[in-house]
Amino acid sequence: MRGARILSVGSAVPNLSINNHKISEIVETSDEWIVTRTGIKERRILTGVNKSVVDLAALASIRALKKISMKPKDIDLIILATSSPNDLFGSASQLQHQIGANKAAAFDLTAACSGFVLGVVTASQFIQNGSYNNILVVGADVLSKWTNWSDRSTCILFGDGAGAAIIQSCSKRQNGILGFQLNTDGQKSDQLSIAYRNNVLADAKWPTSKGEFEYIHMNGKEVYKFAVSKVPSSILDCLDSLKISVQDVNWMLLHQANERILNAVAEKLGITSDKIIANLRKYGNTSAASIPLALDEALQQSKINKNDIIVMAGFGAGLTWATVVIQWKC
Ligand code: ACO
To answer: Where would you tag: which of 35, 95, 141, 328 has the fewest CB atoms within 10 A of its CB?
Structure first.
């Protein structure tokens, strides 16, 4: 088995920022309510007829590539984690074309807010077993297009964004992807969904249908309880299997859903608040993009040092929750 490590990270957000005051002009809410319940002050929203999740993903990818002067043609595989694709057949191929990574195989991965962590784990398997050397993992979502802007319980939460990581093979000694823990509870899939509604076409010659997707539906209280109970045990199981103690963790980087969830998970684990990486105040919940977006920002702020242990955990629709423990090797 070879090693795998994250070599570079890049991110991209749309220019338009919508703060809580602006949202309170659309639905009955207030800056005070949103900040107290979620910690979110503003979020970025993608606009423009021809702009899509692929544009954000491409910009984040190019930024990650530029940091290490890697050419797009050196990428062997692209994994695009998204729940808001341009095309239900997949958008990773559009990303491949847009950045000129014409030698890369490419596929989409759908696992909502756990998507980036699952992408990193998937990439590490391909690298550690010797199949590929350079893999681009992108978490990107434009959930604003599935947001019901008259539903105050959800429209305050989400923002658009993308984050990209280049994962490369290395010696076993240099391995930076230490271990993972993945979970799914399909019985609760209806607690958070963008459901497909099938409409039977009555006037067709044979039984046929043309469906559409509904808006984001979320049982906020249940998702909150799920996150606070399941994420700490997933992190602990993963650390235990690696014989790493909670005290050895330098950074906790959770999916940026809600500041209260971040604090509750840290408290349950006995992790002090100075070890929490958080940027949801500025961006809201950007789904699959939230972890790489926050990682990129933490790196730009020179928070993370060589050999730091970082616990990354995603959680959300599915319901899915996933932990990966990494050691920063650059
Ligand atoms: N402004 C003002 N009042 C509101 C708003 C709002 N934006 N939204 C709801 N309310 C009201 C409700 O109507 C309710 O009023 P009532 O008591 O008269 O019925 C009251 O505020 C309390 O509502 P709750 O839903 O109980 O509020 P709660 O404290 O649970 O907070 C929240 C809601 C912030 C959504 C919380 O439940 C939460 O963060 N849940 C987790 C969400 C999450 O983490 N999602 C992650 C996954 S996302 C993904 O995978 C794509």
So the answer is: 35
